[in-house]
Amino acid sequence: MEMLRGGAQPKQTYIKRTRTGRINIKAGNKVELVTKWTIAMLAVLTIMAFFFFDYTGLQLERAITETAYNLKTMFLEPTLSHFSWGEAFHQIGITVGLGVLATVIGAIIALFLAFLAAENLSKPWISKSVRVVVAFIRAVPTVLWVLIFAIAAGLGSEAAVLGMLFHSIAYLVKAFSESFEEVDRGILEAMRATGSNWWHMVTHGVLPSTFTYLLSWTFLRFEINFGVAVAMGAAAGAGGIGFELFMASGFYFDLREVGFITYAILIIAIILEIVSTQLKNRYFPAAAKN
Amino acid sequence: MNEKAMRKSRWITTVSLIIIIGITYLSAVITEFNFIDSVATLPKALSWIFANLWITQETWERLPAILGKLNETIFMSIAATTLAAIISLFLGLMGSKTTKVNNVFSVLARLIASFSRNIPVVAWSLILLISFGQNSLTGFLALFVGTLGFLTRAFIESIDEASQSAVEALQATGATYAHIVNKAVIPQSLPQMLSWILFMIETNIRSATLVGILTGTGIGYTFDLYYKSLNYNAVALVTFTIVIAVIIIELISNRIRKVIL
């Protein structure tokens, strides 16, 4: 150290040193610090969680062996006992139908809101306020929306679709407005220069160049909505295969039937996943998030 | 865009719109969904919400109990996400093209991920409820299984995206598998993985409500109790606390994401 201090002294500001005098090769790495802290916090919170949990009536060993046995029964001996194959297809159709309705109606409403939310098509304060409303809607879980609508609109597909609409709209507004913002600035400028109004810009400039993206985002949402529709059937009595699943496990305790229904859901979910993975690879090579 | 391509794209647009309209009509028939009815109920429902979902003075007294349950739910989703992330890391390393040990493990890891992701969280919670009973561990495990599948897929993608050249360079120097993973793969994909973990925690708090309603744990159970006893003021308070919690967690994770990405 002394050698360095004397003679041709390098400017201290250029080289950061640790306390022992070594050159700090990780100088000013805020990223690493935050990463470390986040991981540490998550670890601490996870350990704390197990002290906070409520373990009433839990017999761990028995529960594990029983679950293993139940899973074996479910997956190795699936049968139908309380309804027929035809009925099973009908119920799956209802679940898929709920998903379709929530997605399509949601996409139409989201399209108009997305025009307002996109920064290049709207005024800053309008786009900000649409975004705030969307963030609020996203924060309320879908099942709560459905249950709240069930009181007001009565049980049935209307309450389920209306409740599911909220999250679909929130998700699609975000996705659509981001696609709109990626539209080439030049196109909009050229159209503005020819004197076209806002509506012309949307129908002839923005929509044609983003249409395939909008369709694939809508399909990605449909994949999510199928899962949501299953959940709503089970938790909010919206009907469909989810309700049958709830009845089979909660009322009849018929594990074989639970197994059959699970397989049915699994097959459809995997088909949807394969299609949406291909859409993603084709249109969003940079792995679309959310 | 030339004329031919334009005509083709217009044709595709028309056909896909017709198909979508057809499918929507079929769905409305099978679910007995009535467009006019639902449009008519919307104002009614909204006015009901504005008339009944108010937080009154007396419901504030229930706040400590509600916050306790909310706490349980938040802890449940963080613990489920973190522990699932640890296992997903191994599955992701096995499943990724860059770091797989052999094809058998790779296929197996992807299969486990697909299986646990595509069986809905509802099915897991109902199955677990039968033998684990009504306690936090049931909700935790249901969330854990669903998260495991999702994070494994996300991690496989993040590891695949990380550049291959660093891995190759280390291989050339004769580094062991552990060295390669530790010094090349993890540092490159860690920010992306962490971002996925944060995203999953947000998602899990919302799904924890659903799982709670089904398994009788956490804030979902509290909501269900008030909902079934028609105490709508308390329902409003529970919803409000969930919204605040979700927004706070979203803000924190956005902050972290901004720094690390």
Automatic annotation (TrEMBL), chain A:
It comes from the Bacteria. Keywords: Cell membrane, Membrane, Transmembrane, Transmembrane helix, Transport. The chain crosses the membrane at residues 33-53, 92-118, 130-153, 198-220, 226-246, 258-275. One of its GO terms (cellular component) is plasma membrane. Its main location: membrane. The keyword Cell membrane applies. Residues 92-276 form the ABC transmembrane type-1 domain. It is found in: Cell membrane. It is a multi-pass membrane protein. PANTHER family: ABC TRANSPORT SYSTEM PERMEASE PROTEIN P69 (PTHR30043:SF1), PHOSPHONATES TRANSPORT SYSTEM PERMEASE PROTEIN (PTHR30043). Belongs to the binding-protein-dependent transport system permease family. This is ABC transporter permease subunit. The lineage of its organism: Bacteria, Bacillati, Bacillota, Bacilli, Bacillales.
From TrEMBL, chain B:
Signal peptide: none annotated. GO terms for cellular component: plasma membrane. The chain crosses the membrane at residues 12-36, 74-95, 107-130, 136-156, 208-227, 233-252. The keyword RNA-binding does not apply. Residues 70-253 form the ABC transmembrane type-1 domain. Belongs to the binding-protein-dependent transport system permease family. This is Phosphate/phosphonate ABC transporter permease. It comes from Oceanobacillus profundus.
